[in-house]
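ugh ok so i messed up the first submission bc i forgot one of the chains. this is the corrected input, ALL of the components this time, i swear. 832 residues overall. if the numbers dont match what u have on ur side tell me asap before i send this to the collaborators (the ones from the other lab, u know who)
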Amino acid sequence: MSAEIICVGTELLLGDILNSNAQFLAQQLAQLGIPHYYQTVVGDNVERLKQVIEIATSRAQILIFTGGLGPTPDDLTCETIADFFGVPLVERPEIIEDIAQKFAGRGRVMTPSNRKQALIPQGAEILPNPTGTAPGIIWQPRPEITIFTFPGVPSEMHRMWQETAVPFLQNQGWGKEIIYSRSLRFWGIGESALAEKVTAYLNLPNPTVAPYAGKGEVRLRISAKASSEQAAEALITPIEKQIKDIAGLDYYGADDETLAAVVGQLLRVSKETLSVAESCTGGGLGQMLTEISGSSDYFWGGVISYDNSVKVRLLGVNPEDLDKFGAVSATVAEQMAVGVKTRLLTTWGLSITGIAGPTGGTDTKPVGLVYIGLAGPNDEVASFEYRFGTMRGRALIRHVSANAALDLLRRRLLTR
Amino acid sequence: MSAEIICVGTELLLGDILNSNAQFLAQQLAQLGIPHYYQTVVGDNVERLKQVIEIATSRAQILIFTGGLGPTPDDLTCETIADFFGVPLVERPEIIEDIAQKFAGRGRVMTPSNRKQALIPQGAEILPNPTGTAPGIIWQPRPEITIFTFPGVPSEMHRMWQETAVPFLQNQGWGKEIIYSRSLRFWGIGESALAEKVTAYLNLPNPTVAPYAGKGEVRLRISAKASSEQAAEALITPIEKQIKDIAGLDYYGADDETLAAVVGQLLRVSKETLSVAESCTGGGLGQMLTEISGSSDYFWGGVISYDNSVKVRLLGVNPEDLDKFGAVSATVAEQMAVGVKTRLLTTWGLSITGIAGPTGGTDTKPVGLVYIGLAGPNDEVASFEYRFGTMRGRALIRHVSANAALDLLRRRLLTR
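and heres the new structure output, hopefully the right one now
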């Protein structure tokens, strides 16, 4: 038994809107443990929609449609489905009454075109829409096929799904098994290197383990199929522990935990504080740290020393060293870190100076060269050189630089 | 002749990621005037992917695949396509060399699993990936079928599409009628208010004008259908001019022009400089300004004064005023702006202090209350109060605050 998601709307084919409905339904089906193997997008076109229904009925038993339920002539999902199964549409007075009431509630009068929304296939149940005018249907045109239709407006669709579709699916005995996932996050190791380290896990049947990469980091998703969240957890936890042991410090957090959140939590526990000095990231490191509500407990602020004069004036960087070694150098990174730490009176000072490009690179100092400085208790100070390469673009170099700085502090806090 | 978009990845079926690749490709195909009638999402599964290829080849001539080109065993798009058409994979040494070079550039060693990415169907052309390791292919396995493959990482896919796929499609003589759009951007006016002002334009047949809203700003997209970009421009330009006249200062830029870019250009022209003092945005304003390469010509840096001690120590805010008026106040915003301007010796100083939430609000100072300070030449100083409301969330309040500050400076620079 499996489901298929069919999103109807020419606006999706024109790229006018993001198909967030497909993502929502996909997440919901996964949580219910109802497998789905295909999603299809098709325009507001009778013949093509019929062809899509033909294909879907040959490979899925639950067909979930979104879009095309509105009052205008190009909304034709419901009549096309009825026509495909050779069943007439009937006007349902309770829908007309509901629409008329909703219009009255907004001080408007129902238009004739809305009557169209009261036509549903003979034998179908109404799937009520509490917030909009277009109801959906739940319909079994054949014993082995169940059809759901939803309007394309995400907020209406979500509520109809939760309030009516989910209980219906569960009553049918579908969705007994759930799929539950945890995403483990890694920094400082590439996708292929990590995959090789955990290669024994990549072919497990349940839970499954799959790597994916994005924006400088790698994730491993552990997905378990089980009868309950608890049972899924019991499958995931031992694998998670083994993978964490293999990965060591390259593992930094799970699911929505960012490096900034992990570092923040470590500082909160150790009752220490942090300040930053940023050149090429221009404030991006501070922004990451302050995405977390409550970060003021440990993050005190910093200096954006984009111009060299600011490095000298606000951070106390030695102008002679700036001349001698250049702004993008280990020496300057260290002086920036020490400068911000001592001026803001924090436990740790973290600095970034680099060449984000696309211009400004030289043979000896190419685009992507970044120095990160870290100053800490007992006059501890160190710097680290990174070469992020020229091909990844300015935005990614800045993003990776800020996260590399956070990762450095994370490793330092965990290894003392 | 039509195209079909096929997105491969179990993460899409699990709802882990939004299918932004389908939207991007849909927009691009629309711009090129290449019709496409179906989008399909399928998991990393050989048999189901083959079935999808079977269906797609029966109804489309251009098949565009994204995802499944990585180095791990679950990445099987390329081999499945080759297998479907009964063509062997061949290892291409130029791909291996390219991957090895990219690894070397990042100071890493290529892993054996990456060799897999060098296997492409016999007879296929390499579609180069300038920023990642996974190349795509352009392949005509049959005279009437053209296949493109792209990695799932959006930034890599976009560049490969623009640099190689678009010229290829145009060379083939496809995409003769184009849809060309310009997006006008507005700050400081709501969607319905703007729609009312330009209501006469919203029913034009060609070009069409459509409003849409997002992240605190409103856009009007003007789209023309024509035989060439030039012909489309000729349709768009007069409408664009009329709308700009109607909107006045609420219009700030077009397409990819951000407020930070517009302000930067104004400062560049007037040969003036800017510094920032940020509390609740934590560096986000500096980050926006430095997204632009070359921003060091006018942006000198700033202070992230997240903790009150930093406002006093680095910006010279009066501690008694902090006590009396609170950190989120007009007085403190003005002192921050003056403080950063005088300490960094810039023409303008821009400050933000506010309550981004979700905690920290009070009856008199609710979440969403933000003060922006602006200090300029001849001891000019002013502050502005904003109430962004509690419902929009921390990230959006911070985003809107930083842009409101930039918009304030933009209006000041344009009205002197």
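quick check: Chain A touches chain B through 100 residues (CB under 8 Å). that seems consistent at least. Chain A has three domains: 3-171, 178-254, 259-414.
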